Description:
The protein is 34% helix and 20% strand. The chain has 23 helices and 32 strands. The strands form 8 sheets. Strands 11-21-20-19-18-17-12 form a 7-stranded parallel beta sheet. A 6-stranded mixed beta sheet has the order 3-2-4-6-5-10. Strands 22, 24, 25, 27, 30 and 32 form a 6-stranded antiparallel beta sheet that branches. The relative contact order is 0.06. Mean pLDDT is 93; it is low at 1-25.
Amino acid sequence: MKSCWIPLLSWLLSWLFVAVAPLAAQEWTLADAGKTDYRIVTAENPPDVVQNAAAELRQTLQQMTGVDFPQVVENAELADGKYLLVGASELAKKLFPDVDWENFQYDEILIRSDEQGNILFAGHARRGVLYAVVTFLEDTLGCRWWTSTESTIPPMPTLKIPPQNHRYAPDLIYRESYYRDAFEEKMAVRSKCNGNMARISLEWGGHHRFLFFVHSFYHLIPPVKYFKEHPDWFPEIDGVRKVGHPGWAHRSPELEAFLKSLPAEQIHESGTQLCLSNDAMREELTRNALEHLRKNPHVDFISISQNDWHGNCQCEKCKACDEKNGSPAGSLITFVNRVAEDIEKEFPHVWVETLAYQYTRKPPKEVRPRKNVVVRLCTIECSFLQPLEQGGPNQALKDDIEGWSQIAPQLFVWDYITNFSFYLLPHPNMRVLAPNIRFFVKNKTIGLFEQGDSFTTVGDFVAARNWVVSHLLWNPDRDEEALWEEFFQGYYAAAGPILREYLQVIHDAAEKKETYLRCFRQNTHDWMDLETLEKAVQLAQKAKKAVENDPILARRVQTALFACDLNALLRYDEWKFFTKIQKRPFLGPENPALETQRLLAFAEEQGTHAHREGGTGKIWEEFKENLLTRFARKPAENPDLPLDWEKVLWLDFQDAMMGTYRLQEGYTQRVEDSLASDGKAIRMPGWHHEWATSYTIPETVATAVAKWHVYATVRWEATAQTGTAMTLGIYDYTNKKGVCSKTLKIEDFPDSGYQIIDLGSHALQKGMNVWFAPPKRPDEVQHVFIDRIFLVEETE
């Protein structure tokens, strides 16, 4: 699908005019009135990547001008005219004798014209020629590839360009924008991204390939194979050699079964690493790594890196090395250096990557990474609202990155640029993307993995993010505001300025709250107040209205605003409560059930089947079901209290609004319940005592009146006649203290139905949470049920 080019045409023409006006006398005419004097020339039998670069140039020029530019090889009889020289050839070397063809830097490009108007496209042998053509088409001719299927190729029957002299080598040799659309071959090439996940064939320049992308210790020394015979290869913790879960990277049924076969004292609950001072283990790991490399000849990075979580070795030798270096990174880098030295002998072109992550993030005092080692840091702990360069809440990570850059020959960064707990919510981190990329490059970063939400197509402005991030990876010095403006103008047309205003509103709101914006968030409560939500919804409606008569633009805007629409639905009841308190009109959908159906159908039409990391399949289906049933329920009955419900100010928080913890592990379940006020409830089994169901009262609601009287409606199923049925209460997460709690005794409630529990009158504040827990009496109490929480304004 090709986008309408008209909204950008006037901008492109004015841009080209400004670019060539000072050199108008020297401009070259590529095409005019259906004719061209130019020929596209390659060497005879050029590499496939050069052949494809020439084809890309020819096809795009024909699309722009309507002229078929002849493509020839240099040994053919060349007609008179000018040449577009693609790649190294004898003719190119003759016309451009000063070019040093053997010493281009990695991915470097060269675009140059001579006094006769011949134009050379050259660069690094791997893919530099192709990137030179793409850069020329984009920067000089104004072509834009917004997504893998949508572009702006401006029609120019008369095409004139200024003299060319552009040479550029990117600081980042590894560039990965981790969005689904970015992986498509042509999109990755045109974005000049070359990371591990890009599906780029060798004919189109290929891409970097990792062997074991991360957390590789158990890939290389699997405990199922080695632990029983070589326990000394694994970490000593509390005087015992132990093994545990390596985190998400290497869980398997085989490992689970193996762990169950071990004595309890040999299992470490929070994961384990390897004994890095053990030479025999290192030699075996190196042998295994070399064998994997021999089987994977196209690999240029191998990860020799710690497992997820902690559990590092505390044996005498490891501990001494770490104490000497002031960090567990001491034993890690010492170990990785020796592995890298052996790998270099057979694979000198392969980078050996390792992590400075969690317990190894602090740089060592003495040992230094060797020349073929790449240390990768991760931004998982930081706030994505404040740029790293400014320090502030990110000062510790800033210090560690700068510390590593002082001792390491090069760094790699894994940057987390989405909300992994909920891809489909607004995530106001756009203002830090560019400054953080520049900060990384400033500190010797050669590889940057910008991990966006690749599982979705309707995440928070994913098309815009991918386009801008990709351009910044190629050239971090680009003006990010100009990039955002260009994308929004070119891709969203009349809705672009309104969407930019929408983003300004939500980013301003988050910055005003000084939120610590983590990359794992379940909701927007702590940074988006309800006034901001209303402004956002109004701007979203305005943007949709601006393009409602253009189906292509309407779909683009709907996709971009999916997160806004879903957020409004998720906060529907709270928002409605707020307008009730404020006595003003409610701007939400009249039929939230119908709106929910429409949104979910749209998401799946666009190819989205996950709302969070790893949330496909059953998890996506449960997410949909929970969202659909939230509004598809009977109207709740009024509580059985002697109050005039038409006159008092009261708010009803049904079970559908509450948070559930460890749902997949059976700690909670949403169920049909004919006894509940709306026919549905949350059920928790009696075998645990976790606060697995809770609800944080939104600040805007909590502080709307001086005091709220807080009630909860609960019941239980028990065979016991006495003892604890369940506990519940209010906890103040802001000040980290309990507000109130109650232990309900079975004998105090002869009625087996729902009980209204009075939690008292309170001046509710930000962060106050109503929680519920079963009694951990599986033989006496089978289940507890939570129907609702409701607040009544205290008037006396």
